[in-house]
Design a protein that fits this description.
Elements lengths: L8 H27 L9 H55 L11
Helix pairs in contact: 1-2
């Protein structure tokens, strides 16, 4: 199995995830604003659910943003690890090539 990933793949993923986090926060705020006219129009279980949603909206937003922040942290760590691994592999290859004695190799045709 071959795993091939471009050098900017994780950086691009991080950028898109950050944009999604910003979009999610905006959408939740828009949802809260959109349901505002409904306040006081429910009774019974509907009102309890509505009031619960409204009172928890800030916590829901914070929880979602915290989760996305953790995802971004993981993506940043992966990006750093892949970048370090790529640099280390390149340095090792250069070092090994520098130690090789290519002049000692004798190639002859049969």
């Amino acid at each position: 199995m071959k795993f091939d990933m471009g050098s900017q793949t994780l950086a691009t993923l991080i950028k898109h995830t950050q944009g999604s986090s910003d979009d999610l926060g905006t959408l939740i705020k828009q949802l809260i604003a959109a349901v505002q006219p409904l306040e006081g129009k429910f009774n019974g279980a509907g009102r309890i659910a509505f009031d619960s949603f409204k009172s928890r909206a800030d916590q829901i937003t914070a929880d979602l943003n915290g989760s996305l922040s953790a995802i971004l942290g993981g993506q940043g760590g992966m990006n750093q690890s892949f970048s370090s691994g790529d640099t280390e592999m390149s340095d090792t290859a250069r070092s090994t090539m520098g130690a090789a004695n290519f002049d000692a190799a004798k190639f002859s045709s049969c």
